[in-house]
């Protein structure tokens, strides 16, 4: 049997390789790192997490991404299994020790008898064979040009910003305190998963002034600043209004200052644990394109971080993706060349979990085809099915932008009250229906 080839060993490529091999089909996984470096990656390991260490909400009753976690676990997903094994306290979210997670994924893939990993760059789209392109938002220039030449479509791009990471022992805990928002979590460790830095109104106003005045990174010639709203740099948010951050990543709700319980903070900066040892914390929602010197100066204005030592400062990189509604069918195949499937962020899904989920589907679909079967996508009523529908026709091609999974992509339910007040009943109804339909989809595969 001829192997299926995958370009890119990120979360989508790694998951695709696992699904194919588990179906009994050989696979060759091509990864250009570390021979060819990217702006954001540090290693040549599989499934390296760059921007954050969080898979977001793990609530499979009230949250669409939590339901996506459930579906990936039900489908024998490698990414979710390794995430569960290396999870960190994060309230109601699923966060992982990113290095341990990546190492574990790499070890499992290297040990599989049907998986071969080759350290090489693929610069042209192959015209023959069964291939999955899972190159992510940092697709190499050469391959990106090959994709553009084949599709004849202009590449779309936005800029994805990376949040800074702080050494825990440099945070002043006489000012900060440990607490998850609304004390969410089943264990004490979960309920104290975040470090909180309180701000008075004066602190906040001074911080906003410094943020707006800071030196920003310049864009390269030909680049445009088309940001994805779910990952805006904090200075861009601040430019939209002085109160924007206070109602976004710096909102003070659901938190009580352990040092001054009677005082309500005007704004709060949260840091989430980034490794199992608890020695590193990332500043939640603080993606930035400020220059390094400006970052240090501005972030040290945050109460509790005045003596902060940074393990990594923020950055910004280009993120490219296809106009998938015009180019890809619901089996994730390129319409112009059906021997090529696409998976991950290059398809226009946004987020680690969404990317890995598209890898899971591309892998299963490619393996089924190799075995002489056709595998349709999951029902539209599931998180995976809703995402596939969005990127392959549900979205408007003229305004297509990256999308996280959300209940807005689900078909509406009859006889369930809409609006904010109806969420308590509507969201569990969505996820109950999704679980039943996803299980039926899995059962049909035998």
Automatic annotation (TrEMBL):
Pfam families: GIDA (PF01134). It is an enzyme of class 2 (transferase). It catalyses: uridine(54) in tRNA + (6R)-5,10-methylene-5,6,7,8-tetrahydrofolate + NADH + H(+) = 5-methyluridine(54) in tRNA + (6S)-5,6,7,8-tetrahydrofolate + NAD(+); uridine(54) in tRNA + (6R)-5,10-methylene-5,6,7,8-tetrahydrofolate + NADPH + H(+) = 5-methyluridine(54) in tRNA + (6S)-5,6,7,8-tetrahydrofolate + NADP(+). GO terms for cellular component: cytosol. It comes from the Bacteria. Catalyzes the folate-dependent formation of 5-methyl-uridine at position 54 (M-5-U54) in all tRNAs. This is Methylenetetrahydrofolate--tRNA-(uracil-5-)-methyltransferase TrmFO. It comes from Paracoccus aminophilus JCM 7686.
